[in-house]
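Before surveying the methods themselves, let us examine one representative protein, written as a sequence plus integers encoding its fold.
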Amino acid sequence: MASRCEVFNSSAICFPSSLLKKPSSHAAFSPRTLLATNNGARRRDSTRLCVVAMTTVEAIEQEQMMSERPDTLLRDSEHEAVEAVDGCSFREDSWVRPGGGGGISRVLQDGNVWEKAGVNVSVVYGTMPPEAYRAATSTSGIPVNKAGRVPFFASGISSVMHPKNPFAPTVHFNYRYFETDAPEGVSGAPRAWWFGGGTDLTPSYVFDEDAKHFHQIQKEACDKFDPEFYPRFKKWCDDYFLIKHRGERRGIGGIFFDDLNDRDPDEIFAFASECTNSVIPAYIPLIDKRKDTPFESKHKAWQQIRRGRYVEFNLVYDRGTTFGLRTGGRIESILMSLPLTARWEYDHCPQEGTEEWKLLDACKNPKEWL
């Protein structure tokens, strides 16, 4: 697999084939330049690249904020589209991980249209405990009682946008690449690599035409690569976003896949890139249509209850959140996906036939929107 560093819509995603050799020291990533090669995974130094020599990668250390703003890894397409609709600007924080890697977080908070909108980009590497490996993949892979820490490389982009208007939907997307080496204490274990990610919609009120538009854009992105992708990844999305203790999904789905390595990595990379490119045309028209819809306090209260469900899924089941918490990740970036406000009411059950019940029914019984 050829090493590369490419622009992945709003992020630079790197998937080098030989990054995981154990060197005597690591150069910590500063989010200015991300270049890798086949030969020993060298990163090109430059006058604008900060290099921090590390003598050990025994543990994943806490990230630290950078003292100066770097050249951004985030392309302007997504955040400019959001700022154009909202009228407010993103705050940008850049951070480095002394143990290996770094990233950029952009957050628009308490804007005119969005209560909270954020984009995270990260490229990190080091070693992780076996339980973090199991959180990162759906396969068991490593014997619980035999493995030591697992060398890894991970890069990805994630974004969540929570609008203020209860008739406007929340969107989430995340696309990532993982590579792991043989864990300590398990001789002969193979190196593994995989892609994962997806895009899904979480409305508080269901509009059939909105759901059809969103899913149609996802299907078109999938169909460019394989007509079996959309039905396969749509079902995977419905299954993945199940809040098991509630018996309902977080939202009305989209597409989701993980541990994807069954074809040429360049093809999967191109597919994931196409999916990120589809987010704006799938989502922004829905915001334009719903952001100014009049609403009452009862609509806002229902939105807050559904936001509570969002929080439950992310903190209990979400694989990315779990991985970040178990590897000592930067907490502000990990919890960026949570809304500013949420609500829990005791034994709240919407009356059958209401618009609130319609949404809950769609979350309990996933629909074929196309």
Q: What stands out?
A: The longest strand covers residues 114-128. The chain has ten helices and 14 strands. The radius of gyration is 21 Å. The CA atoms of residues 119 and 159 lie 4 Å apart.
